[in-house]
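To the wet lab folks,

You asked to see what we're planning to order before we commit. Fair enough. Below is the target structure as tokens, and below that is the sequence we designed to fit it. If anything looks off to you, flag it before the synthesis order goes out.
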């Protein structure tokens, strides 16, 4: 998903295997893990994602994805949002891009399965 050196992965969701997997993957990739509480307000979420220099956010549910994409102008380091759990997006939605901090055209929206395939040799 394009992690930069010293960047972080913001993980916003309830207890699920994907939360733990994302945290361990961030560490193995040399990034920091930045947890976001499910009870945080919108402004707290934006503050944490921005000030942790998150390149990637892993979230549980379309509502959280939508919030981050709608606020992507406030998140200059964010490159992608990967979604797992409740109400997963369709494959077509998973390929959608929204303008934001990415200099190549926007913040990528990924499904959990698509994120897992990032960087896997063909």
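Sequence we intend to order:
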């Amino acid at each position: 998903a394009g992690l930069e050196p010293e960047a972080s992965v913001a993980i916003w969701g309830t207890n699920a295997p994907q939360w733990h997997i994302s945290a361990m993957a961030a560490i193995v990739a040399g990034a920091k893990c930045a947890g976001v509480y499910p009870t945080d307000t919108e402004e707290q979420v934006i503050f944490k994602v921005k000030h942790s220099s998150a390149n990637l956010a892993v979230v549980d549910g379309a509502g959280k994805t939508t919030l981050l994409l709608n606020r992507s102008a406030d998140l200059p380091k964010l490159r992608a949002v990967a979604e797992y759990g409740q109400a997963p997006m369709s494959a077509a939605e998973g390929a959608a891009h929204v303008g934001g901090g990415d200099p190549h055209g926007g913040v990528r929206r990924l499904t959990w399965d698509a994120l897992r395939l990032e960087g896997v040799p063909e």
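Structural context that might help your review: The chain has one domain: 8-117. Confidence is low (pLDDT under 50) at residues 97-105.

Thanks,
Computational group
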